Structure prediction request, 401 residues.
Amino acid sequence: MKASALNVLIVEDDEFQRRITARILESIGVASVHQAGNGKEALDIIRGANARPIDVALCDLNMPEMDGMEFLRHLGEGKHIISVILTSALDGKLLSSVARMATLYGIKLLGTIEKPVQLSNLEVLIAKHDGSTLERGGGDDRRFSLEEILQAVEGDQFEPYFQAKVDLRSGRLVGAEALARWLHPQHGVISPGVFIPPLEETRNIDQLTFRILEKTAAACRTFHEQGHILAISVNLSLASLDDTSLADRITALVRASGIDPQHLVLEITESAAMTNVAPALENLARLCMNGFSLSIDDYGTGASNLQQLTRIAFSELKIDQSFVKDFSENQALMVVVRSSIDMAHKLNVKSVAEGVETRRDCEALKAAGCDTIQGYYISKPLDRQAFSEFMKTYRPDLLLA
Ligand code: C2E
Ligand code: CA
Ligand code: CA
Prediction:
């Protein structure tokens, strides 16, 4: 969207700052500029601006009556589709923690700027507003009953999508992660956040796991036949590991597809609340013995912790995307990511960073010695056909060229 079509709201208690910012916005040529002295006034303006809704809010943090954090919370809870730019004279660490909070509240954040606001910074961030709708919690809002989901599994409506994994040193494509998608006949492509939790909670996940595994093994074989020798990762639910027959069933299915288990990686997130540790370890040991590689997923989150490292024979550590995203701009995240990479190396396993979205993070990961990356910077998850096309045109030399 052009700046000249935007309605912008400045939320700022300092009148002088407000006036300067308004003048800058006018010089960029926005359609209209509104001003509020605190969060409460801002919400009133937003609620009242029905005819010409506010597109972008510039929001200070420290304000009387209702501060920036509370304003953002209300904004996130409401259904207003407004992009936000955070402005503050406070230090960058605080700004980035509020930025994280805003994202978790479902707000579309264009970026943060330290005050005083400058024309060049503001122009760049305003340009990022493209009128696209808000993505709440990163996904689908639709709800489906367990019944509908089970019928869809029965009706074979799920397919694996493939997201590339790239070796950081050579830039070469070394693998892909298979991510389940529901190809709904009416609603289109639906993300796993909608159907995995209900299936796991009701112990109905196995049927989906096996369908995805079967299709992934078949796709892996096709990729190999096309000359792309990749290792493909599949996510395994912890709930499935209770049943001690699992490892043999997985092994049989994969071998029957004509693929050697050495080309498959199983990603596991161990939960802190895990009760049946013994059968899970029995399954994992057997899978490892049968030639599969094991990967510890979501490393560093509450669900996946140090204890795992001591008892599973794994060959890959996946650093959770919540640490990786924009880590190169945050001192504390840098420390977490770097030490996870170091630990992986000391344990003689590969370090994988997921959720790599920018060149800057990619470069910083390379400098930190990370082995493999996965994320939108390389590619989004693609269906099998699109992924085959992607492999044909992918150029290792362009990764950081
Ligand atoms: P995960 O295993 O952590 O998978 C990575 C998720 O991050 C995927 O979300 C992927 O699309 C997303 N992602 C990858 N790169 C980026 C990036 O650069 N930026 C951002 N913002 N996101 C990125 P997806 O496909 O929605 O899957 C969500 C979760 O659902 C997965 O998290 C995994 O835990 C689960 N899942 C997916 N497929 C299966 C499956 O077949 N079985 C089981 N049990 N779980 C699955
Ligand atoms: Ca995973
Ligand atoms: Ca993850």
Residues 1 and 129 are 7 Å apart (CA to CA). The domain at 3-130 is CATH 3.40.50.2300 (Rossmann fold).
